[in-house]
Amino acid sequence: MKKTIIIYGSTSGNTATAAETLKAKLGDADVKEVSTASADDLANYDNIFLGTSTWGDGELQDDWYGFIPTVKAANLTGKTVALFGVGDQMSYSDTYVNGMGEIYEAVKNTGAKIIGATSTDGYSFNESKAVVDGKFVGLALDYDNQSDLSDDRIASWVDAIKAEL
Question: Of the candidates 26, 41, 52, which has an alpha carbon nearest to the alpha carbon of residue 76?
Fold first, then answer.
């Protein structure tokens, strides 16, 4: 059985909620706050889920800043990475889930297989660094404006990527 970890950064609790819901849908995964994560957490797991909220003018959640260099330096060849991001598409429509885009940039040259890109359909935003080739690089969630859709979005996403884990 492949080992799975969910590493997340959360300030207001929404990303923590997403991480716990994700764990429930996956069935067997360890969950860790990024502030306590280490290079070993990347080395010792086959499937790595990385999640963040977006703050200010599109910045990563604060706890991620200490871990991004670790991610960039990691050799993730043979590992599968999936990303999820939480943001507010109405109040911050020019930077919606940019934090997820920042993590994508850190992961993309590590050798990992990045899975879980999702459609931008059903969202209302102007710009996002998390959109590559017309899709989000992972799962985008908005607990401020579309909280009623979050559980179904997580469940559908897990169903769509489970075969690749």
Answer: 41
| pLDDT attached to residue 12 | 94
- Architecture of domain 4-164 in CATH? 3-Layer(aba) Sandwich (3.40)
Question: Do the beta carbons of residue 11 and residue 34 sit within 8 Å?
Answer: no
Q: How far apart are CA 67 and CA 132, in angstroms?
A: 23
Sequence-distant (6+) residues with CB within 8 A of 147 are none
Q: Where are the domains of the chain?
A: 4-164
Predicted model pTM: 0.97
Contacts from 40-43 at CB under 8 Å and sequence distance 24+? Answer: 41/5, 41/7, 42/70, 42/71, 42/74, 42/76, 42/79, 43/74
Give per-residue pLDDT as tens, 107-153.
999 999 999 999 999 999 999 999 999 999 999 999 999 999 999 99
- Distance, in Å, from the CA atom of 73 to the CA atom of 83, rounded to the nearest integer, reads 18
Pick from 145, 119, 138: nearest CA to 52: 138
| Residue 124 · residue 87 · CB < 8 Å | no
List Cβ neighbours of 15 (8 Å cut-off, separation of 6 or more). 8, 9, 51, 52, 53, 61, 84, 86
